[in-house]
Amino acid sequence: MTVLSVAMVDDAMDPALPTDSPVEGAPALGAGLSDPGQWVELHGNYLFRYALIRVRNETVAEDLVQDTLLAAFQGKDRFSGQSTERSWLTGILKHKVLDYFRRQARERTIMEDASMPEELEGRFDDLGLWKHEPESGPTDWGADAAGLMQRKEFMAALKQCISKLPPRCADAFVLREMEATDSDRIQEMLGVSPSNFWVLLHRARMQLRLCLEQNWLKH
Amino acid sequence: MPLNPLQKANYAMMRLMIRVMPSCRDISQLISAGMDRNLPLRKRLSIRLHVSMCKFCRRYEKQLHLLREGVGHYADPEVNAVEKSLSPAAKEKLEKALADEAK
To answer: In this complex, is the C-beta atom of B99 within 8 Å of any C-beta atom belonging to chain A?
Structure first.
């Protein structure tokens, strides 16, 4: 339960628990929820996968789902029926996921080297142009790249590529692109300066793009 | 693969112009920045001008937007085709935790 104890501090500062506010004429609070005994069966997989995609660790994802279900159970009288049960639960989980990232950032005392690795930097020539000999710029991904991104092969490659990012870089990218969190908020959560944050994102995108080019489209 | 004369000329031209313009390295950074915040008009114009002449940066820009789209699919638990589901043991553990809470 260590996960929960620190989370409470942040809960107090951030009222992001179910935001679905009651409206006049709306059904009574707590109405419309299914039996909590059914929640794992109905939403367990969805919530677990939602967490796992983001935190990239099964044990952590399980813990976050458990925290979410218990918090939902305790707060079930606050459900106003303005959203579906699933999106209400997902809202709580989302908040737990953000808390997890915040705690992780605090525990990471060693600042990663924010500079670009040679693998990326070496694609530019002395003046900062993409090298022409050998050709080191982005290759043509073809007209159907967008369609191929719905396929399993793309997702497997993306998962692999994200796992190769430095952790802080991956966290910044996940928060920005999967959670669409405000940049200011991510900087505060990860404890990085704005300029550092832009470098992390730039680096993540450049590395992911190259990794996908090499591991997804070449096969 | 050696460059043909046209590609050579284009590269030489780019190397000349880059002395007064942002480089591909700068532009790749600006493209990323433009996906997160509003850039001043001057910077947006310099991206547009650069990508109109540089096929690599044109691809780079397009592919970053594709990446964003692909990550959007990946982030959706209903669409993501590679992450696993709860194990039976984990399910049982969650059910027990909820049942204990309900007592």
So the answer is: yes
